[in-house]
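User: I'm new to structure prediction. If I give you an amino acid sequence, what do you actually give back? Let's try with this one:
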Amino acid sequence: MTLLAVLAGVALPASLARAQSADDGYDPSPNGAVRTLAVQADGKLIVGGSFTQIGGQPRSRLARLRVDGSLDPDFAETPVGGTVFAVTVLPDGHIVIGGIFSQVGTCACNNIARLKPDGRLDEAAFLPGGADAAIYALAALPDGKVLVGGNLTRIGGQAHQFIARLNADGSVDAGFSPRAGGTVLSFAVQPDGKALVGGTFTWIDDQTRNRIARLNADGSLDAGFHPVADAAVYDIVVQPDGKLLVGGIFTQIGGAVRNRLARLDANGALDAGFNPDVNGSVSSVALQADGSALVGGEFTQINGQARHRLARLHGNGTLDAGFNPDADGGVYGLAVQADGKVLVGGFFAGIGGVLRGNLARLHADGSVERTFDPAANNNVFAAAVQADGKVLVGGPFTQLGGQSRNRLARLDADGALDAGFDPNANDWVRSVAVLSSGKLLVAGDFTQIGGQSRSRIARLNENGALDAGFNPPDANGYVYSMALQTDGKVLVGGTFTQLGGHPRNRLARLDANGALDAGFNPGADNVVGSIAVQADGKLLVGGYFTQIGGQVRNRLARLNADGTLDAGFNPDANDVVRSVAVLPDGALLVAGDFTQIGGVAARHVARLKPDGTVDPLFHGNANGIVRTMAVQADGRILIGGDFTTVVAWFPIGGGVYVRRNRLARLEPDGWLDTGFNPADGANGAVTAIVLQPDGKAVVGGAFTQIAGAARDRLARLSTDEAAVQSVSVEAGAMFWRRSGTGPELARPPVLWFSPSGNPGSFVPRGSTVQRVAGGWRIQGWFIPPEGSYSVSVRGSASGGVHNASSGLIETTVRLFGHDVIFRNGFE
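Assistant: Good question. You get back a string of structure tokens that encode the predicted 3D arrangement of the chain. For your 827 residues, that looks like this:
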């Protein structure tokens, strides 16, 4: 490897350049109404409407945004000469837009056009004459064909009354010729290929069909489906169980009173148990993975309760009391991201009390995504994310956000301090672990927490109160790190030499109830700072020690599950190992002060083979201490510490030191990810990194500036790349597929089950978990053949100083009997 002079910056082509910002709020601010949203598989968002600016730059009625809300520079600026009402993305990435316009780019395209995946006009799919009137509805079919609806009577020079279908090449499908007796406003495609149609029409193919109908795949009318709505249907969504959510301005449907929102059985019969009673139009409906329904429109009440233009309903139609974003103008488009966040488009100036012009993104709890700036008055060492998106932080601080919080605090997803959580530790908190029960394990230097004596280890209830039922033996020295085993036992490492008066030199194990594990006593001669549990139950231990288990092991060792030393593992680091992690393939990632492992050069970060030898194919190389690391689902690695340069690979020159002040991201092979470059890095040590499920990175340390912004010791960095996930059931097995910028799991996920889906009703469900390419395969579980059930897949992700904290990632989906494949609202 050739090491050249340090490069202060690396110029990248615009198509590759990415920015990470501490101003991580989502605020594209289009200057006109947003009428339609479409989330691509890569997480990017296509936005259509009547705006002429978005993200502070000219974009006429159509734009594509990256995950952080910034304009996508890889999407061509193709001006549209009128409002875009509908967008659909084809399986091959092409994009079809519809609306009221007469020009797209330089093309005279009337009301409909097809774009290439990069946003340029697809001239090969030009429709002569376009459509002769407005297009309000588009739906891509699996074979690449597109349903088209609106006020049209001709399209591509052919007669088609209010509804048509395009072939995959963009030509009009002459064999598809249903006729509607009025405007078509919406489509929903069923898994069997049938298409639901909503609008203002009163007949289809000369047969009475009032505002809602279903077509067979060939375009013929489904004679058995005839619900009858008394006014316009604006949106239709197919649930995984085949039932249909229908929104509009109707007050009757299926022969019964239903004000603007109803649910139909698959055969069109009214679902009598679902009756939300909305007092204004419902323009958009979207399903969430857990079976909840988001509804947007012009209403101000649902079920007699105030809900301004946006609400969430439980699966039974009752209002979700905890979700109340409160938009001050109409909501016309809704979309759910893979990470569960909600995109909202419309014609509003504010939502949730926050200024957001016409486009906003909400956390799962309905709060608006805004910039995270809690401001701690001292260092942050521990960081973990709860399943509900709240963030736990620990350290020596005594204030957060200008309020008293002694060494441990919890922040809402938007960064606001959780007022109801105040455990009040009397000394440093170094490690936090979120348990599947929602309770929290905390460790550090404290001798009191929650007003009671607890020497360095404690368990808290969800509300932050001390769990009196967990009273571990007193540690006579600091606890730096914790690691959870799959059997519920807890490994602790630090400076202590006794627990509860029993000799335990710097490493011990507690039973799930907090009692000391009498059979586990390896003994280290110096500080144990980091612990990780392998899939086979063996334990990876890093720190300052030179002996463990009575044998020489320099700063890194592996123990068998019973605490005996693994004699075949002896990497031999020449200086402190501060952080350890186990990768999905069984390889080991280590970071710290060392510059050699096993006599091989390894500067502060290295990957080891399972046998402990240095992996020569990993090229990580920093010029200073690496204190913390977080592994993404795509294999890239965030590192933080004291370093100021990291080695990157360039075709000309080989390895080159590139300026990265205390924060960087490595490619899976260890070379610097040159696309990750938060402006000027951090101006003080980075001691904690934890990845949120959405791919954003919460960063703690001794800094007062990071990514070019003033942030006191705690910040969150945006990401313009998606954290992608999906859940599916295939041939009796569940697959949890995860990729992109979200966190890699520290240990295999666990399946939980609930007949009701209510919080607190989930119980573990026995299953076999297997790592597969891109995620996890879970089998051996049983779902009863009738009814609907909620299933939660829960995994743990590690972070913080010494990689010693762990949080929960949870995905909840609704299953229906023996469905073998379902869509979970993420796709």
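You can read the tokens as a compact description of the fold. Here is one thing that stands out. The two ends are 43 Å apart (CA to CA).
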